[in-house]
Amino acid sequence: MFSDADTDALTQEETGTDVLQDDSCNLIVWNDEVNTFEWVIETLVTVCGHSNEQAEQCAYIIHFQGKYAVKNGSYDELKPMCDAITERGINATVEVVA
Fold first, then answer.
1. Domain range holding 69?
2. H-run or E-run covering 28
3. What's the structural domain count of the chain?
4. Are 40 and 52 in contact, with CB atoms under 8 Å apart?
5. Residue 7: is it exposed, middle or buried by C-beta count within 10 angstroms (0-12/13-18/19+)?
6. What strand order describes the sheet that includes 25-30?
7. Each residue of 1-23: pLDDT tens digit?
8. What are the backbone angles phi and psi of residue 21, rounded to the nearest 5°?
9. DSSP one-letter code for 73
10. What's the distance, Cα to Cα, between the start and end of the chain in Å?
11. Whole-number mean pLDDT of the chain?
12. Of all helices (H) and strands (E), which one includes residue 49?
């Protein structure tokens, strides 16, 4: 029923090894009244590798909720993406998942 990969993942989750810590951050994009939906969508596609549909859904959630975790991963993975997003004039932060 479980493959070796599934068994390894379960074992790592049960023991709390570094694998879980590698994905312990979220890339948060914040809403503003300056950037257009199109610009945010284009940025998420280019910087985060989202599909157009995924980026559009994220943009709507950001608009209506005020912020959204558009990607999760390690700090080292997300920090360059955060920098690229903020360089485009969009507010973004990397936050540690509690």
1. 21-96
2. strand 25-30
3. 1
4. no
5. exposed
6. 67-73, 25-30, 92-96
7. 444 444 444 434 444 444 445 67
8. -70, -25
9. E
10. 32
11. 85
12. none
CATH of the domain at 33: 3.30.1390.10
Strand, helix or coil for residue 89: coil
Q: Considering the domain boundaries, does residue 5 fall inside one? A: no
pLDDT tens, position by position, 43-87 = 999 999 999 999 999 999 999 999 999 999 999 999 999 999 999
Tell whether 13 is covered by a domain: no
CA distance linking residue 81 with residue 98, whole number of Å: 21
Burial of 13 per CB tally in 10 Å (0-12, 13-18, 19+): exposed
Tokens of 47: 């910087």
- The answer for residues whose C-beta is within 8 angstroms of residue 32's C-beta and 6 or more apart is 90, 91
**Amino acid at residue number 45:** V
